[in-house]
Specification:
The complex is a heterodimer of chains A (about 280) and B (about 325).
Chain A lengths: L2 H44 L4 H4 L12 H32 L4 H15 L2 H16 L4 H26 L2 H9 L4 H12 L1 H16 L3 H4 L19 H9 L4 H36 L1
Helix pairs in contact in A: 1-12, 3-6, 3-9, 4-6, 5-6, 6-9, 7-8, 9-12, 11-12
Chain B lengths: L1 H12 L2 H42 L1 H7 L2 H4 L3 E2 L4 E2 L2 H32 L2 H16 L2 H27 L19 H25 L3 H9 L4 H30 L2 H6 L17 H8 L6 H36 L2
Antiparallel strand pairs in B: 1-2
The chains are: A mainly alpha (about 280), B mainly alpha (about 325).
């Protein structure tokens, strides 16, 4: 074998080795995905029953359901979306339409991106000192505010990006007709980027549905049914956390069932959100 | 003078209704501008408010313990002595283990999805990997505690004990009772969790490499691996590092998954198989049990430390990612 042949063989070998390792890495990633989903589904389905949706969280060692937790999660997530979305859309509009290429815009985008990946537990502590300490007690409202701070950067980012995708000819055409800017923004630009912004809101909802850490010291938990948002309220993630860590079989079974429902909800929601975006892309082309 | 007179005369000739409408539009425009500006400033303020509120909440701990808060391994709620070293150590070590696992795997996935795999398989596999990012972290925690940890304790850790434990220098790292819970397990779970974040950034930036650069290299006879190593990676270096830091930021601040599998022990131990603690796990476990002001304050001070560390890491990530964008001319 000549030196050139040997060099060639070595390069070929390195290439094949690298590609095999790359495929192995992908298999490694998919392996965990399958394992985790399999665990969630198989453990969840065996513990699924109607009592989950009709009965309250039980006292230690007893059987029961998760009705109050589902209700609490729905209330808090909804409140968080209601609080976070308008502010997020407004801030995203500010970035895309008013300070797009200015320093202030760059700074706010930078801060927003940090907020987007900041640990949620830190946001929970923030809301604790801001709301819980001021009010003197834990409450569903505080939990919703904490979740709202997680919704906010997601909506800001998608609104900003979607508005910047709208061709500037559209703005110029509308403005040249003498339409004031606020009407151009609300009636033309928002309409053009509606599905994108909606996707952002849905993804934010998916993200807060399984969020546990910030709720631990804002909404806390509540074993009973309550509709008062100024009181501590049960919610699925914290109930899962508490029940999973407990030594009681009935509680652990409820935790698995709750985990299954939350996971399916989150995954289906993010799938649906992507479909909304995709369908719009296709219809625009 | 006459000029301005004629101007005002001209304005006067405009029908009254339209004038009112113009003024109304102007008012609405200003109101709209103020509203969106306020929202933009709100985003800016909320991050600094978060930092300041935690500094304020932790002031008692910082004041009482001073610098010793960062160097002390005490964590004694009964005697009111608190130090952050064990938690900081645990946070850094688990994040480090996570990165050691996640970075090569993510690189492999990104290479597979952009260069190696047949085209029809790329989109489904990429979506599947991104599903990993969608699973709530509490599910990772439950799975880690009830499924992964027993398996590791039964099959993997005894082997590690027997083989790696005898290594001359690194030995103490890998000796310990095979509990299943501990730093190594937490690091592994964190690694799996951040893989989708790092690999999706890498995949996206790999796709921005101009085709003519890669084609030139192929035309000169490069293998796929040589194109990746000598063309794609140098071109995207800063963004790849940015993606890695983004994953690191996630790993440092991740709470629920770690809380389940770390074991919640306030001891500093050399072994990675021993239970430990992290900043986020300490806060999550003990916040509602904190019965004294100094205890609560210490926990909030821990949160402040975590915030500062992740802020720095994420800021580096963002700056690195912006470098590639600037070169792309975006």
């Amino acid at each position: 074998m000549s030196p050139a042949d040997r060099l060639y063989a070595r390069r070929r070998f390195k290439n094949v080795l690298a590609l095999v390792l790359a495929s192995a890495a992908t298999a490694f990633g998919l392996f965990w995905l399958v394992w985790i989903l399999w665990t969630t589904v198989s453990m969840g389905i065996t513990h699924l029953n109607w009592a989950l949706f009709t009965r309250m969280t039980p006292p230690p060692g007893d059987s029961g359901g998760l009705l109050n937790a589902f209700f609490g999660s729905a209330v808090m997530s909804l409140l968080a979306i209601v609080m976070g979305t308008p502010v997020g859309i407004a801030a995203g509009t500010f970035l895309a339409e008013y300070v797009n290429h200015r320093k202030l815009g760059t700074v706010i985008r930078f801060v927003n991106d940090i907020l987007l990946s900041a640990p949620s537990i830190v946001l929970g502590l923030f809301v604790y000192t801001l709301v819980v300490k001021t009010m003197g007690h834990f409450s569903a409202l505080a939990g919703a505010i904490a979740l709202g701070f997680i919704v906010l950067p997601v909506v800001v980012r998608t609104t900003d990006e979607m508005l910047r995708l709208v061709p500037s000819q559209m703005r110029e055409a509308a403005l040249s007709l003498g339409i004031p800017q606020w009407k151009v923004t609300t009636q033309i630009l928002y309409r053009a980027s509606l599905s994108g912004i909606l996707t952002g809101v849905l993804l934010a909802l998916a993200r807060i549905s399984g969020e546990t850490a910030p709720l631990l010291f804002t909404a806390l938990n509540n074993q009973y049914w309550t509709t008062n948002i100024l009181q501590p309220m049960a919610n699925v993630p914290v109930v899962i956390f508490q029940f999973a860590m407990s030594p009681y079989d009935a509680w652990q079974a409820l935790a698995w069932a709750g985990a299954f429902i939350v996971t399916m909800f989150v995954l289906l929601l993010s799938l649906f959100a992507r479909l909304v975006l995709l369908r719009n892309k296709v219809s625009n082309d | 003078m006459s000029n301005s007179n004629s101007l005002s005369a001209e304005f006067a000739s405009v029908p009254l209704g339209e004038d009112a409408r113009t003024r109304g539009d102007g008012r609405a425009d200003r109101l709209f501008r103020w509203t969106v500006t306020a929202a933009g400033i709100f985003v800016l303020v909320s991050l600094s408010a978060a930092a300041l509120s935690m500094l304020w909440g932790g002031r008692e701990a910082f004041h009482t313990f001073g610098w010793k808060f960062f160097t002390s391994t005490d964590w004694d709620p009964v005697q009111h002595k608190f130090g952050a070293l064990v938690a900081i150590y645990g946070t850094l070590i688990t994040a480090l283990i996570a990165m050691i696992i996640a970075v090569p795997v993510s690189l492999g996935i990104a290479v597979f999805l952009t260069e190696a795999a047949p085209r029809w398989i790329r989109t489904p596999v990429a979506s599947a990997i991104e599903l990993l990012a969608g699973i709530p972290s509490i599910i990772y925690g439950m799975w880690g505690l009830f499924v992964l940890a027993p398996k590791l304790a039964e099959h993997v850790y005894p082997w590690i004990n027997d083989h790696l434990g005898k290594l001359p220098l690194a030995g103490p790292l890998f000796t310990g009772p095979p509990l299943g819970l501990g730093m190594l397990t937490a690091g592994l779970v964190l690694g799996i969790m951040v893989i989708p974040f790092i690999s999706s950034v890498m995949r996206e930036v790999f796709l921005t490499v101009p085709a003519r650069l890669k084609e030139s290299a192929y035309a000169l006879g490069s293998t796929t691996w040589e194109v990746v190593w000598d063309i794609v990676l140098p071109y995207t270096r800063s963004a790849v590092i940015g993606g890695i830091f983004l994953g690191l930021g996630r790993a440092l601040g991740e709470t629920m998954a770690v809380t389940f599998v770390l074991g919640n022990a306030h001891d500093l131990s050399a072994s990675l198989l021993m239970p430990g603690n992290s900043i986020a796990a300490t806060i999550a476990n003990e916040f509602t049990e904190a019965d004294s002001d100094i205890y609560l304050s210490s926990l909030i001070a821990l949160g402040f430390v975590l915030f500062i560390v992740t802020f720095i890491v994420l800021a580096i990530a963002k700056l690195m990612l912006m470098q590639l964008q600037r070169r792309e001319g975006k």
